[in-house]
TrEMBL record:
Gene3D superfamilies: Tetratricopeptide repeat domain. It comes from Streptomyces mimosae. Residues 1-22, 91-135 are annotated as: Disordered. Residues 98-109 have a biased composition (Pro residues). Residues 1-12 have a biased composition (Low complexity). InterPro entries: TPR-like_helical_dom_sf. This is Tetratricopeptide repeat protein. It comes from the Bacteria.
Amino acid sequence: MARSSSTSRTTTPNEAFRSLRGGLSPGEFAAAVRRAAREIGERVSCDARYVGRVEAGEIRCPNYAYERVFLHMFPGRTLTDLGFEPRQTVRGRGARAIPPPRAEPIPPHRTPRAFDGQRPSRHGRDAAPPGEHIHDTEEGDVLRRAFMTGGPAAIASLAALGSAPHASAAGRGRPGAAEVARVRQAVRDIRLLDDQHGALALYRPAGEALRTAYELLDTGAKRSAVDDELHSNTGELAISVGWLAHDSRRWVEARSYYAEALATARVGGDPALEAHAFCNTAFLARDTGRPREAVRAAQAGARAARQVGSERLRSLLALREAAGWAGMGDRGGTEQAIAQAQRAYERGEPPESPEWMTFFGDGEFASLEGQCWALLGDWRRAAECAGSAVEAARRDPHFARNIALYSAELAGCLARSGRPEEAAAVGSQTLDLMDQVRSTRITELLADTATRLHPARRDAGVAAFLERQRSGPV
């Protein structure tokens, strides 16, 4: 969620930080911060508003990503020297150690340098160097980034699983309950960190963890019960990695991972895993313009789900089917599937429902329904659903990514509904969340909204959003 200062605390302007800005405008200084971030492989969405909040004393201590950038810009200084308060004072607990920077040499065109207080060049210095791939920067040091965004314990399980000695190679015996538990924990940690921060930072370590899980699966457990559990959890891990690829717009990789999960489900005779794999396959088919495949995959998932006993799973699969019908322009089929989803959802959630379905609450239902109306071009109803999704998500701030996603969807619907001022306001609120969440899906939604709002750029609120979106994470 967007950070805000406490109403009961009097803020003290950060004069030390203001003096470091020198003669630069807040916007120019923000550009220098973003440029410095790229030099060390970081990404921050710093803008003039953020600089103003720091100088006003509203931000008493920056998050870990900004901390690294500021200390890079002003070498030899501490956060206290920059006018910030100690982290343990702000958060009420001891500060976590900052992991060291990555060991490999930094390419010559990105050699770190101290901030010199000069105005940024107008000849492209603030743009990424030619040939530099954003994904390489974002994911090049995943462990370090995960520590900075608040998930050190969770990401550690992915690293541990991905780097563990393989039983087959080490000759230490076949996998048992301990290995199954580690695979299961990796799945849970991916879901937790994705809910909090988005997919980009997790994709590579999650893929390493999956490779290790499949090696364990190939080795085989001594007991059939353990082997069944290993199959099930490895399949769930494949779906989780597939989702990270899906959310990062790596369509081919996502399709491959979902297919691996489906094969694992079929081999292991696991209907719950099969339903999950078909559910995600239907979602991917919709996103990649194959609505008929989305319908068929959702229906196949529904057949597998009959053996699971979860009404919520049936509801979700019905919404996946509805999106397929909407993609084909079949309003009647869409309405029928949505009604089916609503009936199943209202029956409640029995204990038999799969663990991975914790994300599917009121907000997600409203968002998925809204996406169906959007595919049909009914932007008024789509905006209503997206607004309901945002309200529901804000009641559970644990799902930071969902708040950002639903807000981005709402901004797009409002823009298409001819309500540019409201769209710009919601879009700006979404940008406030992007320091916490890294998702290609959300970034693309905001970019599309900005394009659609361009004709209304004379409005002050719209102009402010367009400037923030243009100068945000690059």
